[in-house]
Amino acid sequence: NKGRVFDHLDFAMLVHPSNKTEIFKLSLALIEVELEFIGKSAHASASPEKGINALECAIQTFNLVNSFRARFGPYTRINGIIREGGTAPNIIPERAKVEFWVRDLSLKKAKQYAKMVLGAGKSSASAIGARLQAKINFDSAYAPFLPNRSAGKLFGEILEKLGVEIEQGDEKAELGSTDVGNLSWKVPALHPTLAISSYPPHSKGFALDCAKKESFEKMKKAILAMAMLGYYVMTDSSLRRKMKAELRSAQKKNDYSWA
């Protein structure tokens, strides 16, 4: 059944290559907001008064969103781009498309801020007389990641036995977003990182290091550790009960938040 693929799993896990080995790393909820402003084209020099500048709506929306930032907490992120903003400088743009990504440790707050971005778009369109076609993609939103501490403790012990040094830092530092967050609220899940490079992920140096033999050897240890943890999950019923009890406790709170 659609949406029920993972319902009967005992455990889900993903190891992310990185520049630091950390067992627990949180992630931010993410909601996408799409805004399309529709104005009216005109010659920008000969008859600008006949046009309705859709690009101005986009720019004013960014200005309004920036004015909100004083209200945001330390883990709120709102980033946007203008995907379409006109065809030539001498033509008043009749169409502008904007995309924002709204993130927070709390899914509830992310939804609240996404609605604020939508409100900024409505205000900008209304002020200049343009139309707005907007969409908040709640259905494809990412939930913040819920690490299973019971599984993570055991995985850390396995890594240490394999000679892998753990450098656990602040779980809320340098956060991204992932759909593993959604999965972590359905089944016990773990998403540790494994150091294979001294360069930060998604950098050129990191990409080059990924092709090195020593990086492959480090990943082999991660694969072995995952297999060992999987064995324990499958054979130890008390561990499974503990992992699932931990998840049920978090689900009862049901706010998807550590903020």
Describe this structure in words.
The protein is an alpha/beta fold. The protein is 39% helix and 17% strand. The model has no long low-confidence stretch (mean pLDDT 94). The strands form 3 sheets. It has a 4-stranded antiparallel beta sheet, covered by helices on one side. A two-stranded parallel ribbon has the order 1-7. The two termini are 34 Å apart. It is elongated, with a radius of gyration of 23 Å. The protein contains 7 helices and 8 strands, in the order E-E-E-H-E-E-H-E-H-H-E-E-H-H-H.
Quick structural gist:
The chain is α/β, with parallel strands linked by helices and 259 residues long. The protein has helices at residues 54-68, 107-128, 149-161, 180-184, 204-210, 213-235, 237-253; strands at 12-13, 16-18, 29-38, 77-84, 95-104, 131-136, 189-190, 193-195. It contains 7 helices and 8 strands.
Order of helices and strands: EEEHEEHEHHEEHHH
Number of strands: 8
Termini distance? 34 Å
**Average pLDDT:** 94
User: Which spans of ≥5 residues are poorly predicted at pLDDT below 50?
Assistant: none
Tell me the Rg in angstroms: 23 Å
Shape: elongated
**In percent terms, what proportion of residues is strand?**
15-25%
Name the helicity range: 25-40%
Total of helices: 7
Biggest beta-sheet profile: 4 strands, antiparallel
Read across the widest sheet, the strand sequence of neighbours is 4-5-3-6
The computed structural class is: alpha/beta
